Amino acid sequence: MFPEFPSTPAETGDPLDPRFVFDFVAYDDLGAGQRWSTWLDVEPLSRGPEPRPDWVVTSQGAIDTELGILKTGKEADVFLLERADPHDPSCSVVMAAKRYRAPEHRSFHRSATYTEGRSMKRSRDERALKRKSTFGREVAAGEWAVSEWSALVRCWELGLPVPYPVQIDGTELLMEWITVDGETAPRLAQTRPDKALLASYYDQLRDALATLVQSGLVHGDLSPYNILAAGDRLVVIDLPQVVDLVGNAAGFDFLLRDCTNVCEWFARRGLEVDPQELFSDLMAHAF
Question: If 0-12 CB within 10 Å is exposed, 13-18 middle and 19+ buried, where does residue 174 land?
Answer without folding.
Answer: buried
